[in-house]
């Protein structure tokens, strides 16, 4: 069992709904990034860190803009991992989301070693097909990195089962088609993809993409074990500052805890 999975399973066994905020590396800037991770981790079960990349196919305007800002400030994948290494005081595990090209350029084994040395516990690679991921998954396992597969709402039962079988961290249930971004309502497909994932695995299932408010998080976790919240956190951090971002994440955490308390009472 990976460190990340063990951590999340222990949290889940208490009845807690899992919360994973997303941050772009080097945002709001290099010097304050570690403070942001540490502050948000106090209310989270893990922190997902995006590595800046010039062609972020899955990212919507908010996260893509944050990545461009980081790149303009000279932060690429290697420096981003160094910044993650400076967040070891965080009270929650850190995992990274990156596209495959930076991994390929660095070398799969070298990337996984560098990530593990930086204290990373898990890996999300949204543009790497299942059929081509075997070598990277082996390198990740060698370094103790959890593999986090993404399951689309259009995936067949057979595809969901195949993806879930690779999971050594949590299953990322994508609630809607398209790129990341703040949405007015949670996709009606969230419950459907969660149910498909639950049928395929007993590993934690977290809903992401379009989870933009405490209300969305509560709705998603009626069926899922937790949520990943990205664009809304990044937008709060960039537009209003760390205090606002922490308040937003704290509000989501409080709503999830209140839901769990009612359910267990």
Say what oligomer this is.
Answer: single chain
Specify the number of helices.
Answer: 12
Number of strands: 9
Structural class: alpha/beta
Number of domains: 1
Strand order of the largest sheet: 5-4-3-2-1-9-8-7-6
CATH superfamily: Aldolase class I
What summary fits the major beta sheet? 9 strands, parallel
**CATH fold-level label:** TIM Barrel
What is the top-level CATH class?
A: Alpha Beta
Helix content: 40-55%
Which strand-content bin applies to the residues?
5-15%
Separation of termini?
31 Å
CATH architecture: Alpha-Beta Barrel
Task: Explain the overall architecture.
By secondary structure, this protein is of the alpha/beta class. It has a single domain (3-264), classed as Aldolase class I (TIM Barrel), CATH 3.20.20. 49% of the residues lie in helices and 14% in strands. It has a nine-stranded parallel beta sheet. α9 (189-200) links the parallel β7 (171-174) and β8 (205-208). The chain is globular and about 45 Å long.
List the helices and strands and how they pair.
Blueprint lengths: L2 H11 L4 E7 L5 H12 L5 E4 L10 H12 L4 H9 L8 E4 L2 H7 L1 H10 L2 E5 L9 H9 L3 E2 L2 E2 L5 H9 L5 E4 L14 H12 L4 E4 L5 H7 L5 E4 L1 H10 L1 H23 L1
Helix pairs in contact: 5-6, 6-7, 8-9, 10-12, 11-12
């Amino acid at each position: 069992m990976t460190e990340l999975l063990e951590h999340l399973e222990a949290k889940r066994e208490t009845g807690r709904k899992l919360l994973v905020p997303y941050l772009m590396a080097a945002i709001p800037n290099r010097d304050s990034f570690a403070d942001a991770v540490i502050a948000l981790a106090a209310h989270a079960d893990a922190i997902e860190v995006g590595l800046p990349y010039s062609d972020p196919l899955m990212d919507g305007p908010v996260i893509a803009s944050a990545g461009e800002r980081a790149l303009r400030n000279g932060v690429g994948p290697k420096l981003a991992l160094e910044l993650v290494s400076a967040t070891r005081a965080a009270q929650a595990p850190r995992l990274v989301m990156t596209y495959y090209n930076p991994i390929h350029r660095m070398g799969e084994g070298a990337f996984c070693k560098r990530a593990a040395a930086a204290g990373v516990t898990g890996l999300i690679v949204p543009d790497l097909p299942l059929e081509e991921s075997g070598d990277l998954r082996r390198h990740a396992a060698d370094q103790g990195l959890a593999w986090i597969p993404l399951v689309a709402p259009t995936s067949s039962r057979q595809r969901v089962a195949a993806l879930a079988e690779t999971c050594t961290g949590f299953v990322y249930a994508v609630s809607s088609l398209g790129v990341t971004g703040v949405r007015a309502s949670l996709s009606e497909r969230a419950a459907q993809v969660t149910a498909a994932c639950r049928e395929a695995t007993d590993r934690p299932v977290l809903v992401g993409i379009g989870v933009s408010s405490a209300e969305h998080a509560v709705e998603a976790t009626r069926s899922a074990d937790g949520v990943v919240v990205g664009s809304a956190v990044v937008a709060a951090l960039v537009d209003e500052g760390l205090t606002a971002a922490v308040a937003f994440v704290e509000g989501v955490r409080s709503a999830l805890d209140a839901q769990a308390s009612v359910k267990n009472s």
